Amino acid sequence: MDSSLLLIKGLKRSFVAPDGHRQMIVDVPQFSLAPQVQQALSGESGSGKTTFLNLIAGILKPDSGSIQLDGADIAMLSESKRDRMRAFKIGYIFQTFNLLQGYTCLENVILGMSFGEGEDRQFARQLLERVGLAQRLNHYPRQLSTGQQQRVAVARALANKPSLVLADEPTGNLDHKNARESLALIREACRENKAALLLVSHDRDVLGNFERVGNFHEMNLAIVPEVIL
Q: Which fold has domain 6-219?
């Protein structure tokens, strides 16, 4: 029996280009990730990295192939069931953080819980305290620095105790010092919560911190550098 947390086979996703022809963006024959393992994928803009993560998260549906997470094939689920799988099994750290501006730090994390097992205010506070925001619980995103906003995003990604955390260029909007500190925080928080981590980046400094680094350009058979996704 395969012991992988995430097992991908024959994954393909295409889009219709401006000139009308169908352009293959993701064509990954096989990829796997074991429980609690942390791996980075390198790749330039336009290589399909974000599309790949969105397929794993169930935000997008593949043209073909399987994406098994904890033994369940995400690719075979309806949109509502993919949403539910994502809520319970996957945490996502976006490059732009995607915080809700009209809600406080604490409310952003609690809202993330509402899609899973439900509100746990104490755990939400604990997560924000863990990422160094104990004094910012009732602050709004606009009242935080960029680095602090990312810390809220990390706490929110862990709110439902996922088995897998996806991180899409999570340090792309940070300066070097904040990027280094935030990366360490993401990795430590995932370890503490026993979540696997799959991070994509083109930053060599970020990639240099990982023992396991794959090259998405080599992994993905469909290379379309002119398409920015």
A: Rossmann fold (3.40.50)
Q: Is 219 helix (H, G, I), strand (E, B) or coil?
A: helix
pLDDT the model gives residue 228: 35
- The predicted model scores a pTM of 0.90
Token code pair at residue 221: 């058979």
**Nearest alpha carbon to residue 113 among 148, 103, 141:** 103
pLDDT in tens, 77-95: 999 999 999 999 999 999 8
Reduced to 3 DSSP states, what percent helix, strand and coil does the chain have, rounded to the nearest 5?
35, 25, 40
Taking only the tens place, the pLDDT of each residue in 90-135 is 999 998 889 999 999 999 999 988 877 788 999 999 999 999 999 9
Sequence spans of domains, the chain: 6-219
3-state secondary structure of 205: helix
Beta strands in the chain (DSSP E): 6-16, 22-33, 38-42, 64-69, 72-73, 90-93, 164-168, 196-201, 213-215
Give bridge partners of residue 40 from the DSSP assignment. 199, 213
